[in-house]
Write the structure tokens for this entry.
Amino acid sequence: MGLPQGLAVFPKAPKLLMALRPIVKYPEPVLNTRAREVSSIDSEVHRLVADMIETMHAAPGVGLAANQVGVLLRIAVVDLSVGKDPSALVVLINPRVLSSDGQQVDEEGCLSIPGITEMVPRPLRTEVEALNLKGRPIRIRGEGLMARALLHEIDHLDGVLFLDRLSPLKRRLLRKKIQKLIRDGDWAGVSA
Ligand code: NI
């Protein structure tokens, strides 16, 4: 998930051996495709997660799903501190929403839909179950922005974008706006 406006963060200084991966932009089909379960948390998964964390922090963003780096595995990372607080980093492997309740409508963006934010309705609270990098089951409770970030990233793993959570009218308008950006060559990462 992109940074909500008002949450200004300075990108971290580049690290040696940083492995940034290019972020896939809408409307690449990989973003509309359901990712598959991770069956083995091997060295490749560890490498992917490390790269996803670096890529999220560098963007900067507060969440990233594997689809967004072109990998169809059910892996997401969330860090509301954008690298400032190591204890805020959450790695979710095969996440599943256990329950959600309440309602919030707030500004939301996506690193795959750069420069565009919209008011998106979401549950206020959610509880998610997942595996961590050690393969141990974890439960994460999120409220407000954390619930929004968790649900946004799990949506990605189901091939769902925040655009899909908007009214048909708003969705059409935003799609037109994006098509125009692509035509004009102003859509980062897409050669049109
Ligand atoms: Ni996103």
Residues 1, 110-112, 152, 156 surround nickel (II) ion (CB under 6 Å). The mean pLDDT is 92. The longest strand covers residues 90-101. The beta strands are 63-65, 75-78, 90-101, 104-110, 113-122, 125-131, 137-143.
